[in-house]
């Protein structure tokens, strides 16, 4: 019995030593978590009946909360609860009304509480997708193809895509035209005698259309080489003189 009591006392002494060492390492006072700092650089991009929101990560935050309202008064804001991944630094607020401006706030949270709300982001207005443009002409040339298409209401620019097969997923966007707001484009740098397919997409701030219906194949061709001109042989001056010289007879 005495032997067991000695073992117990030894175990207790070891535990006390470890406890004192832990207190010494932490300054003798357990650390208390503090709320995270305010979220910064809130970015809001409108889309169809939704807003895509992103922000910078905050040290010490274990999650984030996003709020929105149709006024700039944060006291009227509603917390968006439709995003299950609250630890991410992006959020898509869905179920909004197209054509209505929304203000957005965010804050970081942890076990100690939450930061203050960000300043309201500039109002963003969800919009329905733009109408799809329609290609009207596709004209091949020497190493190039010139396209024209119908203007789309609300579009501020257009993107042109091309490929040697009618597979839109494999198409390449043409970046050689600086005037992206025009409804015509000449796609250059193409291979002559190779068929190409084309698509157009309308764009605006935070919105876009689908790709147009694929064009009929267009094949750039080199210009026709003119045949050499075969000139007529002109008679020499001597020939002309002899031709008109009267025939002279000699008599003996």
TrEMBL record:
Residues 240-252 have a biased composition (Basic residues). Gene3D superfamilies: Immunoglobulins. Residues 209-218 have a biased composition (Low complexity). Pfam families: fn3. Keywords: Repeat, Signal. Residues 209-252 are annotated as: Disordered. InterPro entries: FN3_dom, FN3_sf, Ig-like_fold, Striated_Muscle_Regulatory. It comes from the Bacteria. Residues 1-21 form the signal peptide. SMART domains: FN3 (SM00060). Residues 35-129, 131-224 form the Fibronectin type-III domain. PANTHER family: FRAZZLED, TITIN. This is Fibronectin type-III domain-containing protein. It comes from Geomonas silvestris.
């Amino acid at each position: 019995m005495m032997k067991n009591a000695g073992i117990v006392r030894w175990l207790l002494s070891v535990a006390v030593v470890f406890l004192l060492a832990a207190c010494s390492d932490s300054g003798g006072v357990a650390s208390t978590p503090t709320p995270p700092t305010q979220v910064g650089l809130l970015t809001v991009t409108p889309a169809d009946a939704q807003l895509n929101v992103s922000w910078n990560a905050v040290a010490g935050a274990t999650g984030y909360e996003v709020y929105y309202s149709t006024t700039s008064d944060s006291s009227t804001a509603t917390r968006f609860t439709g995003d299950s991944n609250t630890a991410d630094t992006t959020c898509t607020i869905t179920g909004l009304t197209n054509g209505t401006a929304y203000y957005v706030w965010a804050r970081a949270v942890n076990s100690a509480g939450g930061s203050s709300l960000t300043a309201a982001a500039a109002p963003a207005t969800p919009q329905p997708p733009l109408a799809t443009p329609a290609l009207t002409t596709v004209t091949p040339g020497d190493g190039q193809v010139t396209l024209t298409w119908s203007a789309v209401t609300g579009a501020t620019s257009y993107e042109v895509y091309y490929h040697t097969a009618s597979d839109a997923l494999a198409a390449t966007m043409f970046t050689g035209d600086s005037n992206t707001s025009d409804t015509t484009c000449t796609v250059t740098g193409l291979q002559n005698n190779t068929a190409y397919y084309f698509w157009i997409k309308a764009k605006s701030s935070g919105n876009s259309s689908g790709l147009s219906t694929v064009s009929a194949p267009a094949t750039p061709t080199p210009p026709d080489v003119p045949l050499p001109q075969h000139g007529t042989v002109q008679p020499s001056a001597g020939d002309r003189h002899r031709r008109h010289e009267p025939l002279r007879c000699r008599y003996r």
